[in-house]
Prior knowledge:
Elements: H1 3-21, H2 34-40, H3 47-51, E1 58-62, H4 68-75, E2 79-84, H5 87-99, E3 105-108, E4 121-127, H6 135-142, E5 146-157, H7 162-170, H8 187-193, E6 199-205, H9 222-234, E7 244-250
Parallel strand pairs: 1-2, 1-4, 2-3, 4-5
Antiparallel strand pairs: 5-7, 6-7
Helix pairs in contact: 1-5
Bound molecules: S-adenosylmethionine.
S-adenosylmethionine binds next to helix 1.
Amino acid sequence: MSLDERFRSEKAKWDEISKRQAQEVEIFPSGMDFHEFARQDAEFPGVSEFLGDLRGARVLELGCGAGVMAVLLAKAGAHVTAFDLSSESVRLTRHRASLNHVELEPLVSAGEFLPFASESFDVIIGKSILHHLVIEIGRRDLYRVLRKGGKAVFVEPLGMNPILTFARKYIPYPHKAVVGVDRPLTYDDMRAWNTEASEWQAQEIQFLSMLERAFGWDTRFEFLRKTDRFLLKNVPFLRRFCRYAVILSKK
Ligand SMILES: C[S@@+](CC[C@H](N)C(=O)[O-])C[C@H]1O[C@@H](n2cnc3c(N)ncnc32)[C@H](O)[C@@H]1O
C-alpha cells in the first residue's frame, strides 16, 4: 500500500469515528487538568511526575483524535499544538477546546512529516499514535522538532503477545476498535523510534487487567490491576505479554 493510500484509508476511518464522537464533548470540571487525569488513569503511570510542571511548556501532541488530552494539557498551562491526519478529529479538537475555554493550535498533518521548525517543542506526547505511523519515515522528524533535553511520552499498544495479536485480528469483542493499517509496537520498533533519544525506557502495563478492555474498563475488576502490579514487579518475564507500554524518552 502506498503512503497516499495509507493516509486516505486512515483519514476515512478516523473522520467517521470522530463524527460519531462529536455528540459526546464534555466540559471538564475546573480542577481537572492533564496531571489530575494522568494520576487517575491506569494507562499513564508515572507520566505526570516524568513531565513535571507544564506551565508555559511548548507541547506537541501527535494524533490528537477527539482532543481530550490536548485540552487537558492546555488546562495544565501548556502551549499546545495538536495535530491529526483526520480533519474531523481536528474540528472536534477545536470544538472541545472552545467549550472548555482553552486555546490550542490544532492542525491537520501527517505524523510522518512534521511541519514545524527544528527544536520547537519542550515536550512531545501521543496516545496510541506511533503504531499508526511508518517508523522509517516518522522517526526522522520526531526528534528533530524536540529541543535538546526535551521529553517525549507515548502510550502505545504492545505487539509481543501472540495470543493478543490473534485476538486483535480475529476475535470480536465489545468496545473493539476497527483494525486498520496500525501495527502494535515490538521492542525493535521502540528502539527504532528512539534512535535519536539520549535515554529512554518502556514500562509495560495491563497484563491480566487487559481483560477489562472487553468490559469497557469496568472498575469491578480492580483486583486484576492489583495482581498485575505484583506480577509485573516480581516476574519481569511476563512484561512482554502486556497489552500496552508507556515509553518515556529524553533527547
Ligand atoms: C487510536 S486513535 C488515537 C487518538 C487519540 N490519541 C486518543 O488516544 O484518543 C489514532 C489517531 O491517529 C490518527 N492518525 C492515523 N494515522 C496518522 C498519521 N499518519 N498521521 C497523523 N495522525 C494519524 C487517527 O486519525 C486517529 O485520530
